[in-house]
Amino acid sequence: MLSAVAVLLLSGATIGYFSLINSRNAVNSVAKELRREIANRIEDHLRELLDEPQHVLRENALNIANGVLSGAAPATIRRHFLRQSLIHPSLTSIYFGNADGGLVVGGHDGHREVLYTIETEGFTAGTFNKYRADADGTRTQLMQSLPGYDARTRPWYQAAAATDGGVWGSIYILFTGQDMALPPSRAVRDSSGRLLGVVGGDIFVSQISRFLADLHRRAPGLTFIMEDDGELVATSNGEVPFTLAPDGRPGKRLKAGDSKSPLIAASAEMILADNGARATRGGDRSLTLDTAQGRHFIEVTPFTVDGGISWMIATIVPASHYMETIDAANRRTIALILLSVAVMAAVMWWLTRWSLRPLRMLTDSVDAIARGEQPHSVAIDRNDEIGTLARSFNAMSAAVRSHRETLRRTQDALESRVAMRTHDIRKLSMALEQSHNMVMITALDGTIEYVNPKFTELTLYPRDEAIGANPRLLKSGETPPHVYAEMWRTIIEGNEWRGELKDRRKDGTMFWASVLISPVKDETGAITNFVAMHEDVTHRHEAEAQVRQAKEQAEIANRAKSELMANMSHELRTPLNAVIGFSEVLLAETFGPLGNDRNREYVTDIHASGLHLLDLINDILDVSAIEAGKLELHDEDLEVGRTVEAVVRLISPRADAGKVGIRQDVAGGLPLLRADSRRFKQILLNLLSNAVKFTPEGGEITASVRPSPDGGVTVVVEDTGIGMTETEIAVAMTQFGQVDSGLNRKHEGTGLGLPLTHGLVALHGGTLDIASVKGRGTTVTIAFPPERSIAAA
Fold this sequence. Notes:
It contains 17 helices and 30 strands. By secondary structure, the chain is of the alpha+beta class. Strands 1, 2, 3, 4, 5, 6, 7, 8, 9 and 10 form a 10-stranded antiparallel β-sheet that branches. The chain has a 5-stranded antiparallel β-sheet with strand order 12-11-17-16-15. Strands 19-18-22-21-20 form a 5-stranded antiparallel β-sheet, sandwiched between helices. A hairpin with a 2-residue loop joins β15 (285-291) and β16. The chain is extended. The N and C termini lie far apart (98 Å).
């Protein structure tokens, strides 16, 4: 009896103790999850904040290297940089230092109240002039002049020039003392690798502190960020991470251990003291700080960016935020446990005295069953729990007798199932032995445990030589190592791997195999073996190689055809120009009258045919140049609406002659289009000429221009002409393809207009789409990409 009471007391104490421990562990877990969530949000924000500047610098470096931004036009560059600094909120200034030490800058003061540009005289090393500017980049007032400036001596220039990727300079205090700046930079090199200069920018660090402060308005605790050497980067409590000299000039950066916040200072010292342990453990760290204000949990997350950033994010949450409510609940729980234990002890004392004899009877019966004796019933006639237990015991005794009989029958059934499984295994073995595919079973370490006869037939390795070996004996050395690495990674994870391997037979000959490798798992899900099936696909690979060779030969023939057409066109154009010139002289009657109208008619036909043939040759030359990749664009800023209006005026006489209506629909507010003016007009002329040619009398043609949703420009030419089927569209898009072909065709043409137009659009980075319904008309849509759009001044 006393032992039972002691057990109850001990159980109650144990439950109370573990309840307290579990509560504290739960608090630690919740606090850690909260700190981890805060750190993840901060890390995501920093990645987003720091990725954008390097993307902008990469774009500027490419534009300067490719000549989109001329390195010899600092005025254009500073206006472009100023616009970028206003578009991208994370960058306050963007600059470019060239290989001569010159500098050009566009930026603002962080609040966008003062815009400025900087440029060295002559765009070389020398006097550094800073001007106040308006939003268009026009200089309005000289703000500062500094002699002897050389961009090549600046740390941001030298660091970027020493590498090909983006780099991050050290955080520095602005000379105005208003903030600190983090300078990203990137080298600019031409196609030969020659250094043209360095593009860079400034990010005001106070942006990070504002984000941290806003984050902790909704979350408890505080967060600070410091560099690995302990210098403070940002805090959520608004503390300025640097000092100023008495005269207001920049002082020095503040160490986190010197923070005015005792909590930040103590946390920083603990984190830096724990750096040795971090070097061995790596990754995130969870620390506990005890101060006069109580216990605090600290989550330390390393944050690194390639190119020079290595910071630590420290999130501090007070334990008191969670423990007060839980401690009160634990005190109530312990009191209830003690009360319950006392009541249960009294009840047990009484029950023990009342229940001991019948329980002994049951115990004796249970011992008899345990000794293997025949179960028998106990004679206890009570209506309480003991009586219920006795009846349950008697029912159990009867069930045990029945179970023994059931067990005998189950054993007989199990032996029958074993015989059936043995038969199934024999059939499976026969299937593997007779399979037309090579089958191999290996252990987890790759040791071969089984091969079927097809293995020997395909690899020439006898079974006794293959078993115990490693599948490496089939390696040809021509399958890339990453294929094997991916294969092992997949099957070790418990997944099937499919692929093709080039294997080697015993005699040294090679063969291609389509391979399926599956893991074999036991009833617990653990992998015990691997099964590999190899199908010989050598003949298929040989056929594919023949197809590739035929394709290469066809491409060579096509290039030869294009070169032949270009050479022939050049040879034809010289005499053709003479024919056109002489016919023009005859029509002008420079050397005397032609004599009669029949002569004039013939000369007119000669002149018109010569011009038509010259247009054909020019189209052939353009198509050949596009195919050869030799057609160059001469981009300029176009007002699309005026260009469309000019082309429509040019084509109107032909439309009037065919009694076809033509109109234009140009949306307002269009950006300028960066394009080759001649080629853009050629695209419109080809499309409108086709529309006039294939639209019957009374039809309508519309040329419309509108801005695209992505910021590009879309040109649409729509007609109510004869239309085309999908098959006819495919024919029209091929060189010399004519939907209306044959000797009896109704419309003249060479079949080069649409292929040439498609090639010119593609050179501009755009797309050409044709939608047509037979008998109802055709709509051609040209979409120019957003990078060719320039906002109108």
